[in-house]
Amino acid sequence: MYNWHEYRHAVERMDPAHYLAASYYERWLTGVATLLVEKGVVTRAELEARAGGQFPLSRPPASVEMDEPESPRFAVGGAVVVRDIHPPGHTRVPRYVRGKRGGVVHVAPRFVFPDTAGHGMHAHREPTYHVEFPARDLWTDAAASGRDRDRRPVGELPGGCVMNDPRHPVAPAPVAERVQALEGALSARQLVPDGFLDAAAAQAERELSPRNGAQVVARAWLDPAYRARLLADGTAAAELGFNATNSNYLVVLENTPTL
What we know:
Layout: H1 4-12, H2 16-21, H3 24-38, H4 44-51, E1 79-81, E2 101-112, H5 114-117, E3 125-134, H6 135-138, E4 151-158, H7 175-188, H8 196-207, H9 214-222, H10 224-232
Antiparallel strand pairs: 1-2, 2-3, 3-4
């Protein structure tokens, strides 16, 4: 129905004031609802009728065009400069590295180009690179903290809705009502089962919340040998049932006076 890049871009398209005032999960709600409306799955009128009030959506996406490169242009050890670009649409180039000089440390396999995938366009695969930058070039406080010689890798870098009059703002329906409205609209179309959100929330609490790692930390407090092994090989935490997204490789850092 939509891909992860499209979801990211939908969140990026939120009205700035709404984005800054919204919680993390309200941004999720707005992004998903926007995409479902844009793709014709549900209508904004239905969502607002079910929510009993305004249901804010993100702004329409900009039109973009991208060229598809054929082969990697850079090699390990090559000096590169990140393009200082400000495209009208979605991009995964972090703002803090734009215009910065770095060195290629790894040429990664081709990866779906987020800048086009985020617009639902043909998701061609593009060469990607792991690029390392001097910490002092990325963060102005690096020199003062003694980290000016550190180098930080950034990967993977690609190679190449109606708004109300701000003078008369209308408060949106409460988040909980908007959530129930979206679930009800999808359930009515048999796209999700009844109780879907409660089940999803329980799964998130079980697998994604900080409680997931509590037993690992408690074990490390009580067992010095396990603590040492955990710091040496964080992936070993999985033996205690630690399970979260993107947790195939874990690095564990210890709280110290300097970290």
